[in-house]
Amino acid sequence: MAKITEKITDLADPVLEDMGYELVGVEYIASGKHSILRVFIDTDNGIGIEDCERVSHQLSAIFDVEDPIAGQYNLEVSSPGIERPLFHIGHYQRFLGNDISLRTVRPIDGQRKFKGSIGSVSEINRTIELITALGPLTLDIDMIEKANLVADF
User: Fold this and answer.
1) Which of 68, 69, 72, 147 could form a disulfide linkage to 7, CB 3.0–4.6 angstroms apart?
2) 3-state SS class at 17
């Protein structure tokens, strides 16, 4: 899956940048002819339906030519939303101090799901410190399968 998301990122990022959008991240969920390619975009002014439509049309045309995914899939273009997904180390730095929930690739002490706030980020070590109710936990970025901001109402 990582290769597909990398291919999509390489194709989409320069196009979205030229259009004035930030590529937040890419998710690919393989499920035969019901596979989903989800592209998250953002701007300083937020994202509306018209933005998603514009980007969807542009990316569809590029993907039709480049054909980065074998088989059928549905393209979804979306804003990251209030519980924004975190895809790379820059996102963790940007949201330092915020509450997140995450799932790891493998269990850590028998647990894969964690909640806490981002205490620190180390680009050099590629780690984050998650401040949990049980204390701080240092996680390698590559161990994180999925992470999202937690909405605080």
Assistant:
1) 68
2) helix
